[in-house]
Design a protein that fits this description.
By secondary structure, this protein is α+β, with helices and mostly antiparallel strands. The protein has 16 helices and 23 strands.
């Protein structure tokens, strides 16, 4: 793949400045600022925990500023697409048998998921993060992670730490920037409180359990620190009306059943449970917890986020489901346009035929003949470890991956999206073009903020993920 060359000394050609200027005038002005202010090159990244004990990954020192049409697109597309995905299982599949077959899950789990969707206005309060690439024209959704356990919620800390650098403060003053401060964490808890109010009889109390498997629960010290920090955020919302609440972090096995089919943790009644580490809910949470949680959910004594619905919501095949109906009346014309514009073509990997751009293909032959324009990924994997980007994969390895996907089932193939590069300070001190994935949060019905994952274009497999060496960048929205 041909990528732009590094820029020694940070002298940017006009076309690069114009490219950044499409994000905002400030984004282009920042490049000009770095050309005349050497201090802007003094830091590359904040190491894990250096910027804050709540940030467990490297944070890039350079911000990216966005406003105007791009910012509006972020705020409009992510919630609209999230809502459509949450409606898709019941609206486009309907019957439990069809859902079980489509997602490859047992009938009882499919039934529990669809029942949970039916009882919660299609998971109105569910938590999600869409991963997008900007191709220079539109944001394209690679996947929507509909799980509480998504990373990057520390958006306010990203902005605070990056802008606290002296050079960045100077730039902000020079440009008279008006930063729209992200409220991801506050909106996260506001959504939880609203969900509890809808699901339960409100009693002026909202205790929230954030649950992990034993292997992923943070150590006692950090867990206590984060719990106190979270509780303070929650109480800011509750105290003006005289309500109270606490945030507790624990393992699934710590949850007990109390009187009236209520869930308790450390002697406190839980009103909401955030199943943070639950990509495979039964395996990670355990059958005993799942039974207790289902009994409480059935009795309407607890809100589960994302709960049983996650079995059908957190699956990349939902994008294929949208594309399978993009020419049907099951979607409205605005919804069809949303899919065509903001979701790259995606289909299930099966030994069958598919229509693409008006041409009928046998899927195995399509995969074999158009490798460099396609991306192969499992429907229920995360972390990017199993993703195969065609242009970065040898023909032999691609063929092996395709055979595995066809034999195992549950995989999707997606049209490759070519990212518009973001130029920023690289590991060797020169400015390099980065591939960037835009993480856009949706908390219930609310747009919940944004951040970048960044990887230099000259290295890697084409997968931009912190588990594979990407760093996080501060995406700063201006008013």
């Amino acid at each position: 793949m041909s990528v732009p060359e590094p820029i020694p000394g940070g002298h940017f050609p006009p076309e690069v400045k114009a490219q950044h200027g499409q994000l905002s005038p400030a984004a282009a002005a920042f490049l000009e600022f770095t050309e005349r202010v050497p201090e802007a090159f003094s830091r590359h990244t904040f190491k894990p925990y250096e910027a804050s004990p709540l940030i467990p990954y490297e944070l890039h020192a350079w911000p990216t500023f966005v406003e105007g049409p791009v910012a509006r697109q972020m705020r409009e597309v992510a919630p609209a697409l999230c809502r459509l995905i949450k409606q898709a299982p019941r609206r486009l599949l309907g019957a439990t048998d069809r859902a079980a077959a489509f997602y490859g899950i047992p009938h009882e789990r499919a039934h529990a998921a669809l029942d949970a969707l039916a009882r919660t206005d299609d998971a109105r309060g569910a938590i999600g993060r869409g991963d997008f690439i900007h191709d220079g024209t539109a944001l394209k959704c690679l996947e929507f992670n509909m799980t509480a356990g998504v990373g990057g919620w520390e958006t306010a800390l990203h902005v605070q730490q990056v802008l606290a650098q002296p050079a960045m403060q100077r730039f902000a003053v020079e440009q008279r920037l008006r930063v729209r401060q992200p409220r991801t964490l506050r909106d996260f808890f506001a959504n939880l409180v609203d969900t509890v109010r809808r699901d339960l009889d409100w009693e002026g109390e909202c205790n929230i359990g954030i649950l992990f498997s034993p292997s992923t629960l943070p150590d006692a010290g950090p867990a206590e620190q984060v719990s106190r920090f979270f509780t303070a955020q929650l109480q800011e919302l509750l105290q003006p009306e005289g309500a109270r609440g606490e945030v507790l972090m624990a393992t699934y096995g710590s949850v007990e059943s109390g009187p009236g089919a209520r869930l308790t943790l450390r002697g406190k009644r839980l009103h909401a449970v955030v199943e943070y580490d639950a990509r495979d809910r039964v395996a990670l949470a355990g059958a005993a917890y799942v039974a207790r949680a289902q009994a409480a959910f059935d009795a309407r004594t607890v809100s589960l986020l994302n709960g049983p619905a996650q079995d059908v919501l957190d699956d990349k095949r939902n994008l294929t489901l949208l594309w399978e109906h993009v020419t049907t009346s099951a979607l409205s014309e605005p919804e069809r346009e949303l899919v065509r514009r903001n979701v790259p073509w995606t289909c299930r990997v099966e030994r069958t035929h598919v229509e693409r751009d008006g041409t009928r293909y046998f899927i195995p032959e399509l995969l074999a003949s158009q490798r460099e324009s396609l991306v192969l990924k499992p429907g229920r994997d995360y972390g990017g470890e199993s993703v195969r980007v065609g242009w970065a994969t040898s023909a032999a390895d691609w063929d092996t991956a395709v055979r595995e996907a066809l034999d195992v089932g549950g995989w999707v193939v997606q049209e490759r999206v070519r990212p518009t590069p973001i130029h920023a300070l690289g590991p060797e001190g020169t400015v390099v073009p980065y591939s960037v994935v835009w993480g856009l949060f949706v908390l219930g019905e609310t747009y919940g903020g944004h951040f970048f994952r960044m990887c230099p274009m000259q290295r890697g497999t084409g997968v931009v993920n912190v588990a594979q060496g990407a760093v996080v960048g501060a995406l700063i929205e201006l008013e």
